[in-house]
Design goal:
- The structure holds two protein chains of two kinds.
- Chain A has a single domain, classed as Fumarate reductase/succinate dehydrogenase, transmembrane subunit (3 helical TM bundles of succinate and fumarate reductases).
- By secondary structure, chain A is mostly helical.
- By secondary structure, chain B is mainly alpha-helical.
- The termini of chain B are far apart.
- Chain B has one domain: 3 helical TM bundles of succinate and fumarate reductases (Up-down Bundle), CATH 1.20.1300.
- Classes of the chains: A mainly alpha, B mainly alpha.
- At the A-B interface, α2, α3, α4 and α5 of A face α1, α2, α3, α4 and α5 of B.
Chain lengths: ~130, ~140
Amino acid sequence: MERPLSPFMFPTWYRFQITSVLSILHRLTGIALAIGSIVLAWWLVAVAAGGEVFAVTHAFIASPIGVILLFGWSVAFFYHLCSGIRHLAWDAGYGFDIPTTYRSGYAVLAATIALTVLAWLYVWLAA
Amino acid sequence: MKNTGSLPNATAERDQTILRRVRHLGSARNGLQEWRLQRMTALALIPLGLYFVASMLRLATSDHMSAAAWLASPVPALLTILFMLAVLAHAVVGLRSILIDYVHTRARLVAAELAVRGAAVLLAGASVLAVLKLFLGR
């Protein structure tokens, strides 16, 4: 008999909680950032190529879709960074008890929002 | 939070013990090395990532000249290369751990893994070449 595998369990059988949601988010943002690395490499190549290639790349990045993507990647980066530091603390043996885990989880979310707001405030003010 | 003072030592000791046991008794493949690579690149990516993103924010409103000029100077060129290599190594291990969880057919897993590794090598090569071109001045 086929037993349901974990992703299938979520909507119907499993109650969402911040611990599991943040864990899934760490993976999803990781995938998003891996895709972002393609754009990053492309951007480096475009800067090196210059001329037409860079102009087209720059126009795309500066377009509404480009800015939305950049915003998404910035959120993903800051989340993955903060959540990654939380994971490193766990790897070092710290913060395993439930109250600490919940507190560090909310701290990661707060830090993500703060860093994202600061970054885009900087862009907005500098532009 | 109690007894945390001795935990890192206990963790290190446990890792050593497990490594010794696993080398003799089980098929660990490259799990531990991968685990370590993931953590080492994660540590490296904290300063490198913050540096790169901060630099991107400064370049955000710039034209081609300043991005090219930025990558032509030694420190940004070096840190950008290291950043890209660390990102791609970190991504390969991370994506592989996700693939292992969701791809249950051996052939598909190997194919997906090869695709991820191939893409990472291609992107790493292209990034390094691009930065080197700007740094060495075409």
